[in-house]
Amino acid sequence: MMKVRTRGPDETRGLGFKIGKLLKAGDMVGLYGELGAGKTTITKGIAQAFGIAERDIVSASFTLIAEYPTNPPFVHIDLYRINTDEELDHIGLGEVIGGKNIAVIEWAEKAAQWLPDDIIQITLKTLSEDEREITVKGLHEKDRHRR
Ligand SMILES: Nc1ncnc2c1ncn2[C@@H]1O[C@H](COP(=O)(O)OP(=O)(O)OP(=O)(O)O)[C@@H](O)[C@H]1O
Ligand SMILES: [Mg+2]
Hints:
Elements: E1 2-7, H1 9-22, E2 28-32, H2 39-48, E3 65-68, E4 74-78, H3 85-90, H4 93-96, E5 102-106, E6 120-126, E7 131-137
Parallel strand pairs: 2-5, 2-6, 4-5
Antiparallel strand pairs: 1-7, 3-4, 6-7
Helix pairs in contact: 1-2
The site of adenosine-5'-triphosphate has 20 residues, from strand 1, helix 1, helix 2 and strand 7.
């Protein structure tokens, strides 16, 4: 478990980049935290580690799942608009998580039953306008590649 305090979005993106560099094909990252906590911001950093431009990672207003043809493939999922299990079934989460894909999931608590409980968990908490407390769990667990 790691707890970091960031000041401003650049620091949060920087942390995301470092985390991204530690990810392996097939890893899933669940992002937890209220509106504006910085989930999309840290996703930009994680994605940058795979060569994806910051501007290509957007808040999912209509796109719930965005897939990027990187190696390994990178998938950004935003479950903000999902309210029921039926909706979750319909978006085809099962087809984009797992395998070799790197999956980063905002509002991952909405898909708790569909996700392994050993996914990497990043929780962002707003401390002030520009400060966030970011807790990372499961990144260094040594069994995580044996799925
Ligand atoms: N330390 C910080 N880390 C991350 N974002 C910060 C920080 N300080 C200020 N911000 C600002 O907070 C906002 C975070 O927005 P972001 O879209 O990343 O949040 P989110 O958790 O994805 O929200 P949503 O639930 O709407 O998807 C941005 O406007 C960003 O500039
Ligand atoms: Mg977001």
